[in-house]
Amino acid sequence: MDTYPRDAWERLGRALERRRGELGYGFRQRGRFTRERGAGKISVKTISRLEKGERGSYPESTIGAVEAIYQWAPGSFDSVLRGGEPDPMVAAPQPRKRNPITTEGAPLTAGERLTSWVYVRMRQLGHGDDEIHEFIAAEGLPLEPTTLSAIQRLAQATGASLAEVLALLGVEDINTRQSPQLADDKEKDTAGKA
After folding, report:
1. CA-CA distances (angstroms) from residue 23 to 29, 96, 191?
2. Quick one: how far is CA 59 from the chain centroid?
3. Which of 68, 82, 104, 132 has its CA 20 to 30 A from that of 112?
4. 3-state secondary structure of 73
5. What does the pLDDT read at residue 189?
6. pLDDT of 185 above 50
């Protein structure tokens, strides 16, 4: 890689930071971003240095790994360092809309977990991103499905059984909409009253 002036590296850092935000990771979420997307390939320290434009060179292997976790096409670093724009590999997903009373680090809801699972399963079955996103939007995910027909459509689209989809939602019986834990608690209450 050619040598570039400090301001070029700072421009790259700003572009990386902006891209991290587009991918749904906020201002102080470098650690989470690195854990979830870096898969042990890149350290938080390296991401921090890159986003701050602190160094003037990196090994090609690091550049390739970073381009991949930021979902940039190969050669995007050079493009930005020369004053151009990066070439994203795929469109950035829209940030999740969370309930405003929950914290940023709150665990995913059952519907959000199911949405992620549907995405992965449909990709494994060979569906494209546009088709998957259209299906997810049409089904109203990441809200938790509330009808048997919605569960059946999810099972059909993912090639899963109804039981598998219900298990992901934590529901044992769709007719009672009870989770296994709630059913156990009710049985204990009934036994205690007898």
Report:
1. 11, 10, 50
2. 27
3. 68
4. coil
5. 47
6. no
* Stretch(es) of the chain classified as CATH 1.10.260: 6-81
Secondary structure element (H or E) that encloses residue 19, with its range: helix 6-22
**DSSP 8-state assignment for residue 89:** S
CATH fold, domain 6-81, is: 434 Repressor (Amino-terminal Domain) (1.10.260)
| SS3 letters across 150-177 | HHHHHHHHHCCCHHHHHHHHCCCECCCC
SS3 content of the chain, % helix, strand, coil (to 5): 55, 0, 40
What are the tens digits of pLDDT across the range 103-128?
Answer: 555 666 677 777 878 888 888 889 98
Q: What is the DSSP string of 179-191?
A: -HHHHHHHHHHHH
Residue type, 76: S
For residues 72 and 88, is the Cβ–Cβ distance under 8 A? yes
Stated as kind and residue range, the H or E segment containing 51 is helix 44-52
| pTM of structure | 0.46
User: What tokens were used for 114?
Assistant: 């199911």
